Amino acid sequence: MSKGEATRAAILDCALALSKQIGLEALSIGMLAERLSMSKSGVFAHFGAKEELQIAVLEEAQARFTEQVVRPALGAPRGLTRLRTLFTRWMEYSAASGEPGGCLLIQAAAEFDDKPGAVRDCLVRGQRQWREALSRAVAMCVERGELAADADCEQLAFEIFGLALAAHHDVRLFGEQAGRARALRGLERLLAACAA
Amino acid sequence: MSKGEATRAAILDCALALSKQIGLEALSIGMLAERLSMSKSGVFAHFGAKEELQIAVLEEAQARFTEQVVRPALGAPRGLTRLRTLFTRWMEYSAASGEPGGCLLIQAAAEFDDKPGAVRDCLVRGQRQWREALSRAVAMCVERGELAADADCEQLAFEIFGLALAAHHDVRLFGEQAGRARALRGLERLLAACAA
DNA sequence: AAAATAAACGAACGGTCGTTCTTTGTCAAT
DNA sequence: ATTGACAAAGAACGACCGTTCGTTTATTTT
To answer: Quick check: helix, strand or coil at residue B79?
Structure first.
């Protein structure tokens, strides 16, 4: 790993932490430079444009999401077990205790939902992939007979997504940690209602 | 209504439309002045500080929410009918077709969930009130025997909130109008599962 | 060790930001 | 007609923004 790559990684790490708190748009190169004890131009040179920086941060966030949520669940057996793993990992990721700031992806979704451009495109792509992965995890439960054969996988994925959003909302805005437990209860109710 | 009051109302109306698209933080006084064919200082004078403007916009948004969602539902009979009215009005409000921009309150929740201050406080207050109103609407269903006596009202309000968030997410980010129908289906499933 | 490449710096640019202050209109009551 | 309060304009402020450019320092390759 060359020095340039190492610096770029350090910048991205800092930028990710920062934008989780203040958003991708409010993230500024000057601020980043100060935190890293670098010059503005030094930071800037690694990306060439602010939009490229935002995209790089977003892709890093999505990569980490995959790493921390999707990949561990692939180790769990298909079906309900995997679906539950996916969800609990998701809860842990989106409200990682200790460090400040919530889930960058949810934040970015609200920030860029009306702002056309490459950043939005990147986000939409990632979110669609994630939703499909979730939908597939539900479909596996149906295939294995753990959920009713007539269950609507996309509808279920939609509702599970809503539970996660609600948990994020409660934890972040109200500071109610109970939101996570609520979401888990919601998931169980959902699965029970669709049990085979 | 004095001239000053009229101008202030016009500013707020424009500011509300603008911040629904770009957010409360990105909303700038210069931009507002240009759209209204006014001077920056002329706009500024009505609020004295940007934070005051943000709070005024937020309170206006909350007032309109109450007007367009809560109040019409109070005209519906208590119980399931009122709860359904509340939800459908909510769907219509949060993704009002025609005009650009989504629900300012959801946007602001993501934007200010890690930004302490008067704006956040105002938002949290409003969101708590709304959640409680929702919870009370559920409780009325239980009281009237339309939902099971052991139903957890706050849990149900939490899950209903999640459905609305998911609908907003899908409509705004994916442009899938079907999100609203999905949310309605989710609500019906929820109510059916808790039927007395 | 020398040459070539990469990385970071520092200064400057045009712009926009929120904010302040002074001045100019514009009505209403006297 | 005069005064006085209010509304808006206009110019200026320091601060920060993203970006460009030329220079200097590190690192790598020959």
So the answer is: coil
